Task: structure prediction
Amino acid sequence: MQTPPLNLINWLLAFSPIAVVLVLMVGLRWGGKKAGPVGWLVAMGVAWLRFGAGPEVLFYSQVRGLLLTLYVLYIIWMALILYRVVDEAGAIRIIGQGIARLTAEPSMQLLLLAWAFSSFLQGVAGFGVPIAVVAPLLIGLGFAPVVAVAAVAIGHSWSVTFGDIASSFQALMAATGLPGQQLAPWSSFFLGIACFGCGLAAVWVLDGWSALRKAWPALAIMGTVMAAVQALLAVSGLWNLAGFGAGLAGLATGAAVARLPRYRHTQQQGAPLLEEPAAGRKAMPLGLALAPYLCLVIVVAAAELWPWLHQVLNEVQIRVRFPEVQTSLGWTTAAGLGRTISLFGHAGALLAYVALAWYLVYRRTGWYEPGVTRRILRQTVRSGVPSSIGIATMVGFAVAMDNSGMTHILARGLVEVAGPLYPLVSPFIGLLGAFMTGSNTNSNVVFAPLQQEAAGLLQISAVVILGAQTTGGSLGSMIAPAKLIVGCTTAGLAGREGDVLKRTLLPGLFISAVIGLLAWIAVLYL
Result:
């Protein structure tokens, strides 16, 4: 296969779509729904005018991108609907109150809510939901608003890859063409290390060494359980449940640890214990609040583990076979199938089944206020449309870059500069992608092909590098302006995102450096 020539001009032009998005989002503070389309236009123009991608190449690249976009958005929209179904019944508030009542010790409350509960929410919803929900709960317990938002931003970030029914991991598979069985071991290992780092950093923002001395037994126990459960589910092929299961296991473990004497008899933070139900409305039992998520575990496990059910659900699939296409410079995209979408067995479909079932249960048993259907749909659209526009355009320009040889040029340039030290920087590339787009899903779509290409050129393990990529993308959630804005808005800190970023930037960079060092050591011995 011929490749476009590598020189400084070509490398800078190949980087230009990413640079434009960075400038618009970081410099001008545009959101992904505005910056994404501009980046897409730049990518299409450069691919056509400089890299010889004619109408046929660009057309098929966008059809491939459309399939990948639908695959990812199917999960995201159904996850948002399930979250709204549960939240409108008051179940999220009940779960948060139940956790807060387990202990009066501040560092333990922080671990339960900002680390375990936010990871649990990331497992079932994602896209800013953990920060939006948990930060106000912490403020209600008396935590300073900046500490509350920073702690949640840090605490949940390790769980992003396998959270939201593994939407970011699904994007990693789709963007690289590698099966989950190959990607899961190293991804879950690096994310397990990140789990401990995020727990430590979340407690650190509360009161430094003093809080760490109080919290270390809980950190060690809960972190071991969450990292182990996530890894076990991921390498067993149940990556759709890995983030959710890890968060749930962390909550259960934390509930037991909170009964230790060191966490039971400490003065409260000084604020009332969250709001009570409205007058005339009874409180939902905790078991009923948790039931939809337990049901989700059963449904996903059955769909994955029962061969007959798996076969029935995956009978109807969208498949598109693409022809071989070639740019005028000789860069060839091989013929083959695009991303296959199972209409009834996809993770999004499983989420939809659970959401519909529990909507009917909560409605029949009287837990909804009038107008609930309209509110669920309105809030889902309000949350989902901006993310969808950003994801669709980011996917579109990422596939155009890949099919025109631009990604290859970027990878070759990075390899020549970094050489054998490339693994040290690989998680920072993922971090950058999440920072500029607000999404690990987008980071994996944009940068995973580049990282895979770089690993091939260096003849090092691609799965190690891709594990570092998605871990860095997860950690980017703690510094992504788009997510910090969500948290600051719900916490009454609008306009003070910079104060929160000061608390989260160093932990994000430090944990990413640790992951890079581990990736570099790993490739030396593989």
Notes: The first strand starts at residue 317 and ends at 318. The chain has one domain: 8-49+63-275+283-524. The longest helix spans residues 180-235. The CA atoms of residues 430 and 469 lie 5 Å apart.
